[in-house]
Glycosyltransferase
Amino acid sequence: MAHQPLVSVIVVNYNGRHLLDACLGSLAAQTYSHREIILVDNGSSDGSAAYVAERFPEAVVVRSEQNFGFAGGNNLGAYHARGEFVALLNNDGVAAPDWLERMIQAFDEPRVAVAMAKVYTEGTPAEYYEKNGTINFLGYNIMRVFDEPWKTFFASGCALMYRREAVGEAPFDEDYFLYAEDLYLSWRMWLKGYEVIQVPEAVVYHKGSATAKKHPDTLYYQMRNRLLNCLLFYEGRTLLKIVPYLIFYLTAEALLCLRANPKGLVRLLEAYLYPMRHWRAMLTKRRAVQAERVVGDEDILAMMSCKLVNGSGFLARWLNGLSRLYCRFIGLRTVEVLKEAAIS
């Protein structure tokens, strides 16, 4: 870009004082100078807000009396942001010095609404980074799908940047609280005709769910929010195609939970029932999302995988083969189905 637009960097924090020196220190060391740092303290009890105010006086500290989750916390930060572009960084993330400089260059292309960094998560096998992943048609993460280093369907909320003009005042639906809100943002941008990309040169190092893993309702939010995304974003005819497989998968997940984590089964079933209990609100949100649509599900599914699970063992190959046959039969033209069609 010829000029340096203001970038607002939002860090949401909940009792993560021990992480903030590394995180905010990496932002203070950025080579991109036209920036502001916003720390949203999500009702912490460890003195995080006061510590940041003293240790990083250049940061804008936004205090919340309660924990609004990742979605609500970032929205709160966005309301205070002044930038033309907004970047999000997890409090357990450490950005390379040229992270912002690399990220902002991606927006020279006007169709790009969201860009994500190349995030190296502690403990993740090296082969994970050889290819970018995507989601399957049920909303689960699938590893190593795309050969192109820039290609992705969704941007991880761990380290992303978005164009405010495209996204609007707030990036997330606050009802999501934790998990899959970044998928909500990305899916919405694709429907609106924008693009979501990865910037492989923009690097962030990540500890991995240092805050979210402590939350007792992780399983609930993960499952509920996957369901919400499917119900909000797919066209009606696509929903009819995936519902049989979705019922099969949810049943299998419940049976596995009953065996491995009986106490978590109640919360899992509550996640399943959430859309029915809140059907009026769901319909209102769905109408709003679909009203923005300029891209059909054919183009959306072409960025998704038909694989059901990650892995290369016998069971994984069998399940993924079954899923691929289902997609071919029912007309879900995912990445793998399109590749097979091109070869034949």
